[in-house]
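User: structure tokens for this one?
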Amino acid sequence: MKFQALKWSAYGSAIVMFIVVLMGALVTKTDSGLGCGREWPLCNGKFVPEYTISTMIEYSHRAVTGVIVLLLLAAAILVWRVDKRRDAKRFVGGAIFFTFLQAVLGAMAVVWPQSPLILASHFGLSLLAFACTLLLAMLYTRRGQTAAKEEAVRPSMPSPPLFRAAVWLSTVYSLVVIYLGAYVRHMKSTGGCLGWPLCNGELIPELSGATGIVFMHRVAAALLFIVLLLLFQMARRSFPAEHRLTANARNAFILVTLQVISGAFVTWTVGISGWGLLAALAHTVLVCGLFGVLSYLCVATLSSQRAVVLQTQRSTV
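Assistant:
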């Protein structure tokens, strides 16, 4: 019974955290960050404010953030009392840590004006919190439980050091690209490069102002596409086609391809309010998926190596 409660609290945390990230993107895209004025935790001086669109968007985001805090606290208590797995403790602890940081940063952004450089980091912290909740939830899926038992009995093929380094560097670099994308939004520079793949009709435009910011993000995203293509090729050479590392390297490449397409869609819909918002939210969904897969790859490369080390230690005893 307690294990079921733990499992569903982990699932709920991942789902609600995804909603938090999506709603944060909605707040930024609709420019609703000050929908509650410069007040926190009150909203325009009230616990339940009067209805306006911007107020409800910002207030709903705050409310859902409160829900995720309660879910994470429940998951943490259950992990410590029921499961006690080290990886589960790390994931729930990381989720609480990054959620706390992004909540504090969000409150500070409301009370005191912040630069776009600081505001852009808010999205990165939200993604890290989402990745932790996703990894926690995956531990309690049927596949996650089966994989853990199999690893304990018969460790899978260890990942080569070069592949492990490539996975971690790709994940860190993806955060840089994501940060640049968030910076573009907070600088309100989305229209700096009209058209795609050309920027304002040029292959290399004049790199100043909003155009330079957007073009830098485009170049960084194109490089991430190449990096994840190479990572997929490394996985194919190092592991069988059905291996989880190969499968997820392929998933990462598919997601970055869709992300590039959605980025083009964002550009094509600049100035079209309804479609522009839809494009931005779709882009955010794909970013969450891509970073979640890359985070899983990081953990998988470590877990396979750790399982082999443990098995070697047992055999020598």
